[in-house]
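Lab notebook, bench 4. Still working through the backlog of constructs that have no structural model yet. Next entry is a single chain of 158 residues. Request: give me the structure tokens for it.
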Amino acid sequence: MGYYIDKQGRLYAGDMQPGDREATAGEVAQKQLGTAITAKMAELAAACRDAIYAGFTSSALGEVRSYPFQDKDQANLNSSVTASMLPGNAGDWTTPFWCADAAGKWTWAPHTAEQIQQVGRDAMAAKLAQLQKNEALQKRVESAATIEDVQSIQWTVA
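Model written out:
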């Protein structure tokens, strides 16, 4: 049992089949590096998603508040920001939006148009920061020369 290259040029482990050839050490190493890269890229993408879903903070209400940012939360925020910009809104227009104060108490706090738009800007900045971090780490993974280099790349939470 070893590593072999089949007629289509694919590397496999097992027993050699007729017409296949034994893989070189370099071919095996390249395949293993490719597998490590693929796994690390998936790991980083999941960490990025988790970091985005963990939420963000905004001081739009005058104090730091935490906001959720799962898919549903993102859609709700988009709807609220859009509604805040519709013509014909009363001057005292507000929308309730789910957020937590510094003590961690979650409430539906009223947000003015300006406040909810600031929350939207803060959300976008937080999400883009995570996406840019993911892109930078993915590029490092793509250029890694060894499995050890790949494994040394980690998503860290600040």
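Notes after review: The CA atoms of residues 78 and 120 lie 7 Å apart. The longest strand covers residues 94-100. Flag for follow-up if needed.
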